[in-house]
From TrEMBL:
Pfam families to which the protein is assigned, alphabetical: Oxysterol_BP
Region called Disordered, residue ranges: 143-187
Biased composition (Basic residues): 151-164
Cited SUPFAM superfamilies: Oxysterol-binding protein-like
Name by which UniProt lists this protein: OSBL5 protein
InterPro entries in UniProt: OSBP_sf, Oxysterol-bd
Domain of life according to the entry: Eukaryota
GO MF entry, a single one: lipid binding
Comp. bias regions, Polar residues: 167-187
Length: 232
């Protein structure tokens, strides 16, 4: 948050290298940490609290002593595990044999999807992303549309059958029967059959929305592939 200067030793001139404005400070990411009282013994802030306190007080000797105490405890714990044949299994990290490095188990390197990703947060050391689930929303809307069509379809068939069984002149009955757009056999279809029958008969608004979301999804996938290439 402060200014950074470059000092030219030969000439003694000082040049401003970085000067964060108030606008830059407002845009900085907010820092969220677990409350100290809720941290476990091996979380960094609690584990290194005495070292940090000594550094803040300017007591380098005390900081070095506290650091030595911590490291010695870790060496002793590792020695006891070797003697007991206990394997150390990290909770959040795994060893990458190819690079001989330790990597975070739950790292998320995929590009941020502004259409589906809402927020990213950490819970119990695990990085998680809250998503909108557009596909689920599309599916729910499609199911509602299909059910509405089936209801209208069955109501139309019921009205048709009622008209056919009503006491009307024969020529009128024939006209009514022929004007019915729903065959009588369809009335016996199960709900599943009706869904398959009307699956493609979605409303115009639903169809437009699905096509629009497909186009957006295709564009996002293209951007994601490009960002992954750049990342590699």
């Amino acid at each position: 948050d402060g200014e950074v200067h470059i000092n030219e030793l030969k000439s003694g001139n000082a040049e401003v290298f970085w000067n964060p404005t108030s606008e830059v400070r407002r845009q900085r990411l907010k820092r969220h940490i677990v409350l100290f009282e809720e941290q476990t013994d091996f979380e960094s802030e609690r584990l290194w609290q005495h070292v940090t306190s000594a550094i803040n007080k300017g007591d380098q000797h005390k900081a070095t002593q506290e650091k030595f105490v911590l490291e010695e405890e870790q060496r002793n714990a590792a020695r006891e595990r070797r003697e007991n044949g206990t394997e150390w299994k990290p909770l959040l990290f795994q060893h990458d044999a190819a690079t001989n490095e330790w990597r975070y188990k739950y790292e998320d390197l995929r590009p941020w999807d502004p259409l589906n990703d809402i927020a990213q947060f950490e819970k119990d050391g695990i990085l998680q992303t809250m998503e909108r689930h557009l596909s689920t929303r599309m599916s729910n809307h499609k199911t509602t549309c299909i059910n509405n069509q089936i209801t209208r379809h069955k109501r139309s068939a019921k009205d048709c059958r009622r008209r056919k069984t009503s006491d009307q002149p024969s020529n009128h009955s024939q006209n009514t029967e022929s004007s019915c757009s729903t065959p009588e056999s369809v009335q016996e279809l199960s709900d599943d059959d009706g869904k398959y029958l009307w699956f493609e008969s979605l409303c115009a608004q639903c169809g437009k929305e699905m096509n629009h979301l497909k186009e957006i999804h295709s564009a996002v996938l293209s951007l994601q592939r490009a960002q992954q290439d750049i990342h590699r």
